[in-house]
Please model this.
Amino acid sequence: MKIVRKTIAVLIVLAMMISCGIIAGNTATISFFGDVDNDGALTSVDATMIQRYEASMIEFTKRQQFFGDVDNNGETDIVDATRVQSRIVGIKDGFYSVYELDTDTSIQNFCADYDSGLAMAGVPVTFYVTGRGFAPLSYEYYVDGDIVQERSGQDRFSYTFPTAGEYNMSVTVYNGFDESETFPFLYHVVEPYSTDEPVITSVHFNHWYNHYSCHTVSVDAIGGSEPYRYCYTISGRSDEVRIDGSKLGAFQVDDSAPQGEFRLTTGYIEANSVDTPYEAIHKYIPPEGLSSKDHDLTKYAELTLTVTVKDKNSEESTPYQLTFKNEDLPE
Ligand SMILES: [Ca+2]
Ligand SMILES: [Ca+2]
Model:
């Protein structure tokens, strides 16, 4: 048992790295209405191209069709070409009210109920994807280059790995323009194991990169005897954030000061997912993963999330720890 648990601890680190490294974005594409030649400016070339498209002299991609339809009435036609010409000379009438649209496609989160290295051969694993981009998004899943779930709106899929080993996983996300991004990664599957104590198989957030939305941390565990109880602790150091106890929900302030070290904990509760306090999480998770020069993160040093699970017989799991460190901050 000791050996198994040690192996798991090492692989948890790998799993964390995989979770944090995920982000994919499009290269430069048309971002505002009328710019069908994607040169970043509205010119008579754009108007001419729309005319030629309507006359079936050239073909448009779905993205060109969408942004060529400058009045957003569902048709890309001569009226749009005329509106482009008008706008070039300063008449803005008739353009869709939203001039510029952020349509970048990215994978914001990719996680599973078993992190890499904790999935067992012969046991179904469910993967979850969070995509972002021009709707509707659809997803396609591959294992070792073979398609295992055809393109659909399903943002999750389940797969049972037949044997232990390394598998090349990939998910492709398509946006409403049929443009796609693929995220590949290596997934480790181990021999079936059993354990007397509960083992945490994954800890993940609903979003990694959008730190303005609500963050929910979810935990999956196996082994021991159900029901489980879960303890969430967030600790770190803050130079500016004031921890306000009234906004923390399930979390209690163990130790905090307007500046300096703080520690928030739920104690043991029944919920395997809990919303994280805005003050602690939202300001700390760097959008690019483990380090960032952006936003206000230079003010913050380090944040640690620790989760432990206790089973019916009070057997406790090894703590599962995620550390977010701002590497650009001086000591
Ligand atoms: Ca243009
Ligand atoms: Ca139109």
Remarks:
- The pocket of calcium ion (ligand 1) is lined by residues 35, 37, 39, 41-43, 45-46 (CB under 6 Å).
- Helices lie at 2-20, 44-54, 62-68, 78-88, 278-282.
- The chain has two domains: 27-88, 106-328.
- The two ends are 39 Å apart (CA to CA).
